[in-house]
Prior knowledge:
The chain has helices at 2-9, 16-42, 47-60, 64-87, 95-112, 118-146, 150-168, 211-228, 230-240, 242-247, 252-276, 292-302, 307-323, 335-370; strands at residues 200-203, 206-209. The protein has 14 helices and two strands, in the order H-H-H-H-H-H-H-E-E-H-H-H-H-H-H-H. The protein has a two-stranded antiparallel ribbon. The two termini are 28 Å apart. With 371 residues, the chain is mainly α. The protein has two domains: 17-45 and 333-366, no CATH class; 66-326, ABC transporter involved in vitamin B12 uptake, BtuC, CATH 1.10.3470.
Amino acid sequence: MSVFWHSALRRPKFGRDQQELALLYLACLAFSLLLAMLLIHLSGSSWTRAVNALVDGAFQNPGRWGETLRRTAPLLVVATGSVVATRAGIINIGQEGQLLIGAMGGAFILTLVQPGSPLMLLLGLAVGGTAGAAWAGIAGALWYWRRVPIVLSTLLLVYLSSQIAAYTLTRGELLLNVVPGEPNRLLLSAKVAPESRLGIVQIFGNRFPLSVPVALATALVFGWVLARTTWGFRLKALGLNPRTAQRAGIPGVRYGMSAILVSGATAGLAGSMMLAGGESQYKFSSGFASNVGWDGLLVALVARNSPLVAIPVALVFAALRSGSTFLSVAGIEAVLVDVVRGLLVVALFIPPAISELRRKRRAAAQLTERT
Length: 371
């Protein structure tokens, strides 16, 4: 049995098939970029002006690459947790809700406990991660004990999380910041106490919170854990073939639950770090997640479930998000960024689909020859 798993999980050599796959990736990316340029031109805008605006907004203008790094951190943390769940064969698509619940849990500590302190910061981050794990754990429990599909439950929990977050911002005894003598037109929490905020790194005129090195360390650690530890090996075995993995002595429920709990915890941690790092002016709102959870899931999918590959992919997605703010200044619709991002995602999904189709055809041809 050990020989079987070794042969099934070993890394393939970079042969002819891998070279063809790499060329197919380049061709699809080139075609998607050409199509994006054509759509920008048809919309009445200049694609060169759009590219310059994106580059200026993401990297070139003063302070912009620091903003891009700040946006990269939560995407990378969410993507890392998504990779862990997918390795175990679990399709968690509820990161948006788990991030929101994590930010809400962290807000109770970071905005209500006074005075602020570094200890409260650590406690707020821990509560955020725990809340995200608990929210994802609901879907895991429904799957393993009631066979409710995780895809369905995690998606429905996203909508429930937004309702819960909105409710906490309608009550002064919860998270709503009530200012005496002023109407509460904006449903926002109080600001995070200055002593409970993440530190800010300043390099060459750029500012970004400490969530950036934390996110990078998270991706590197989980990349090593998934590739070099028994836990990572068993998760991958469970994802490849659950029945065979259980026959080999791998407890499916224990490892599956651990994977989805880690996935939810990272999303919740991302939310609490966003709050402590200055997102939304250090205030919590019902729309706080701002599609970061969805984009983090896309980062994991585009990275082909590799925490290390997710690092540059998250940077690209963050650059598109931060650069889009400069498009309106250049007279270009910001929605074009979503079009470009969608084209890139589709382009990166096509090569593995074609590769899998070829593999199945070859297998079918070999089977026909034998019979």
